[in-house]
Amino acid sequence: MSTARKRAVPAPLYRVALVTGANRGLGFEVARQLATRGYSVLLGTRDLARGRQAARQIGGDAVAVPLDVTDAAQIAELAAWIAREHGRLDVLVNNAGGHADREARTESATPDDVRAALETNLLGAWQLCSALLPLMRRHRYGRIVNVTSGCAANMAPDAIGYPAYRVSKAALNAYTRALAAELAGSGILVNAVCPGWVATALGGPGGGPVERGAAGIVAAACLPEPGINGALLRDGQRIAW
């Protein structure tokens, strides 16, 4: 009988990711790609039936969880559930968005329209980060990816349309930079990703493949150490705010 000691085999790295707005389009593809990398993926969705169908399509450890990013009570419930079930959260992809007011004009946009865009595109991400950061701090590791839009950065002088959407995404960009600065050195990286114009229900026909847009988001979600922090990224590269 050999007395040679067996080499210990390290346990596989266990990572948990939450993707909001994940039952279709860009969010679904981000969740699918993360699952192929071995992440346990939580698909945040307002429509739980569709979310469960999406999770079945992905397979593996994918699970649909009820999440309306404008509902503070539901966010708190989800944070408590993740703490009980997993004890950690490693990746948060704030993908849920909407209110693409293409035909609107700044002069005539109503306060209700602007407020609705801000509630989803800015405050939803803000509330989720605040609720879930304690789970990332437990292990001094985290990747937060805020999905933004090119129409909120480097706006051309003749840029017309999407006023509430533009402003809400520009505010999300500012929030990203502020949070990243506060978390520098914590092991938690915060970045914004512009996936480009992709062919989804929000983006409409004519856009590029969803797979490519999602790949840039996934790259930011899986940044190695030391990683980029507080940047605006597209296709894995920094672009100007």
Topology (elements, then pairings):
Blueprint: E1 16-19, H1 25-36, E2 40-45, H2 48-58, E3 63-66, H3 72-85, E4 91-94, H4 111-137, E5 142-147, H5 163-183, E6 188-193, H6 210-221, E7 232-234, E8 237-238
Parallel strand pairs: 1-2, 1-4, 2-3, 4-5, 5-6, 6-7
Antiparallel strand pairs: 7-8
Helix pairs in contact: 1-6, 3-4, 4-5
Radius of gyration: 19 Å
Q: Quickly count the helices.
A: 6
Q: What value does the average pLDDT take?
A: 88
Which structural class is indicated by helix and strand composition?
Answer: alpha/beta
Beta strand %? 5-15%
Order of helices and strands: EHEHEHEHEHEHEE
Major sheet strand order: 3-2-1-4-5-6-7-8
Global morphology = globular
CATH-wise, what's the superfamily?
A: NAD(P)-binding Rossmann-like Domain
Poorly predicted residue ranges: 1-12
CATH topology, by name, is Rossmann fold
Profile the largest sheet. Answer: 8 strands, mixed
Distance between the termini: 65 Å
Short summary of the structure?
The protein is α/β, with parallel strands linked by helices and 241 residues long. It contains six helices and eight strands; from the N terminus they run E-H-E-H-E-H-E-H-E-H-E-H-E-E.
